[in-house]
Specification:
This protein is an alpha+beta fold. The chain is built from 4 helices and 4 strands, in the order ααβββαβα.
């Protein structure tokens, strides 16, 4: 729990990164406080896994994953959802994301989740390159409309 403020700062960094790509992701005025509350709830939830990457006592990255149930109309109902994966820029390209993902996959398998979903912005060049290299394939299109 003592790490939540650091993790929340990284969550806010993701939000600010996405805001540069798309103003739709503009942070709320109390986003940092909201992240702290949200991450705290994730820690206590049996359906969430919050992992951190550390270097010399400093949190330099994290991942957040969740166990999700699709509607009962689908044969495959139990899936894993990767919500966030973030590593501070100066620590990237060292295999840290891959290590976090491996732990997520172990957790998903332990909970009988053999299919993993994730969503990333199509204009995010880091994600657009990284996720296909990890074997992820686009299978749906996520759209929005302001009315």
């Amino acid at each position: 729990l003592k790490d939540i403020p650091q993790i929340a700062q990284l969550g806010l960094a993701i939000l600010k990164f996405h805001q540069k790509i798309d103003p739709y992701f503009k942070a709320a005025p109390d986003a940092l406080k909201s992240y702290q509350k949200y991450f705290r709830s994730c820690i206590y939830s049996r359906k969430s896994l919050l992992l951190v990457a550390e270097f010399e006592g400093q949190i330099i990255g994290y991942s957040l994953s969740q166990l999700v149930n699709r509607p009962p109309v689908f044969a495959i109902q139990k899936i894993g959802l990767i919500s966030d994966v973030f590593i501070m820029e100066k620590f990237r390209r060292q295999g840290l994301s891959k290590k976090l993902l491996q732990e997520n996959y172990r957790w998903f398998k332990k909970h009988q989740r053999h299919h993993v979903h994730l969503i990333y912005h199509q204009k995010n060049p880091l994600a657009s390159q990284a996720w296909p290299k990890q074997g992820y394939q686009q299978f749906m299109s996520y759209n929005r409309l302001k009315i």
